[in-house]
Hints:
Elements: H1 8-13, H2 59-68, E1 73-77, H3 80-89, E2 95-100, H4 105-117, E3 120-125, H5 130-136, E4 142-148, H6 160-169, E5 173-177, H7 182-185, E6 195-199, E7 213-217, H8 222-234, H9 240-250, H10 253-272, E8 277-281, H11 291-297, E9 305-310, H12 313-323, E10 328-329, E11 339-342, H13 343-347, E12 357-361, H14 367-378
Parallel strand pairs: 2-3, 2-4, 4-5, 5-6, 10-11
Antiparallel strand pairs: 1-7, 6-7, 8-9, 9-12, 11-12
Bound molecules: pyridoxal-5'-phosphate.
Pyridoxal-5'-phosphate binds near residues 80, 81, 179 and 333.
Amino acid sequence: MPRTDLHPSTVAAQALGWTDAATGAVVLPIQPATTFIRDPDNEYRRGRSYGRADNPGYDQPEALLTALESGAASLLFPSGMAAATTLFRALPLGAHVVAPQLMYHALRRWLAAQAAAGYLAVDFADAASLDALRQAVVPGRSRLVWIETPANPPWPITDIAGAAEIAHAAGAVLAVDNTVATPMLTRPLALGADLVMHSATKYLNGHSDVIAGSLTAARDDEFWQRLVAGRASGGAILGNLEAYLLLRGMRTLPLRVERACRSAQRVAEAMAAHPRVLQVLYPGLPTHPGHAVARRQMAGGFGGMLSIRVKGGEAAAIAAASRVELWKRATSLGGVESLIEHRASVEGAGTPVPPDLLRLSVGIEDADDLIGDLSAALGK
Ligand code: PLP
């Protein structure tokens, strides 16, 4: 059993303190085997038979994530989308699901397609409003409420404890996409959520070199076992090298998130004073509609993600992004390098994102360098 009296930065840095029993190595070796020896009496007493279901390379990163999220169990997946879709696919055919109007766009599209095909019944609600969530759930019929907080890309905040109460009162479970907050800032399970999902591609790995996802459960119950079986039989499994790299990235998660939060706050404040900026969307600013709830449920910072709306509309926003030298023009988030993107171009037709919006993922570079580069790119 991992110690429960240690701070998350200690738990992460030591990756639970696991060492290799055979060699004493402070890092566990990558185990590439796809199959395991059966005992002479036809049993598998060591508990593993085949790599799709029983990958030893997942044990430490899953245990670490479980500890950081204060959960009961975790599962790694080959992408955040694989984690999320495995969860939705474990629901009964036609199950009613409530999801946010503002959320990661590819998952919103996937849910809409599931609804169109009749696999799920999906209602999209304004998840920043508990009243809207309450109206969207159907007691006795809703099976899952999905939220993302802070959510792409204006970073609205959902009150997790309030959403959990609403979901449970309707007989549904609450699942939280915790990619942006990370367990360093918010632990949804401690606030009443049932499941947490990550695009581990982002902050958990942190180096823009692994696509991965995860689910963590508050309880190892019958639904969780359906997800365990869903990964093993569905076959959406992460590679061993990726699992190793993800674990290595997670060991520095506290440092990276702390730095990103501090710098994002400074970038947000600098952009709020910039003459070419129409609006700054960052939960750390008192002007943000989710600021009060974020203060309550995010400890230690408001995350490394913000968006700015540029005066002059779409063309001015794209032009500013074209002039940065330090920020990298790329999609994704949560890496050590800062990224800038014209979000509407990524999301395409039908996006709710304003055309003048630039999404910023603040990395761990010097904040003055980032502010100087972005300010110059925006112009006078
Ligand atoms: N959730 C959020 C908040 C994301 O930003 C992303 C990816 O950008 C995903 C889920 C999907 O994760 P992946 O790209 O690892 O499949």
